[in-house]
What we know:
Elements: H1 2-11, E1 23-28, H2 32-35, H3 41-56, E2 61-66, E3 79-86, E4 99-103, E5 106-110, H4 134-147, E6 150-159, E7 165-174, E8 178-191, E9 195-208
Parallel strand pairs: 3-5, 3-7
Antiparallel strand pairs: 1-2, 4-5, 6-7, 8-9
Amino acid sequence: MELDRLVELYRNHGYLLFTRNNLYALWDTLDLDLLQPALDPLEQVAQLQKLQERKENPTANLEIRQKQVTDTTSLRKYYVGNVTVYPDVRTDTTNGAEKVTTIRNVTVIQRSDKFKPKIFPQYIYLTRGELYRQSRYMRTMNRFNNLGTWRLVDIQQIPRDHTDTVDFVMRLTPAPKYNFTTNLEGSFSQSVISGNFVGLGINVGLQNRNF
């Protein structure tokens, strides 16, 4: 858990490619003071007492260190580059011409005209030129998933070669515009005083995801 916390901390400070493979933990159960020879009888008694205490309450020192890496890209800080959104990704994406719109540094490319490009920047928390933060990446991902407008949300992180910039490509698969649900419930009760009762309940729901 501590290694995961440190990795998340690094990724929230620009280190996009930093992973747990960059770290390792070193345990040390020895106490160097106990290994030093003591000529003074009083010091020897103190060492014996301390050794007995360590046997009763074992302790260990823990150091988390960074591994020696040959690929330094994992130690590079990245900044947000271009953000491209494909809001109408489907199995067949060959029909129709692409319509490209750029608004507030967000490029929207769609073949249909179902989505207004101006709605996307307010849900994207990745600003061009800012330091990459994994928390903002996850916040953007969760925001689009919670909207319900799209059935699948995929955000690719694409670091540029030999640079400190990472581009983001969002591929969104729309959900059906309308959601229709029905629910039928029944109940039956018996009473000596009032007799038998039968109850039926029908619930019908129609959701317009665009609304």
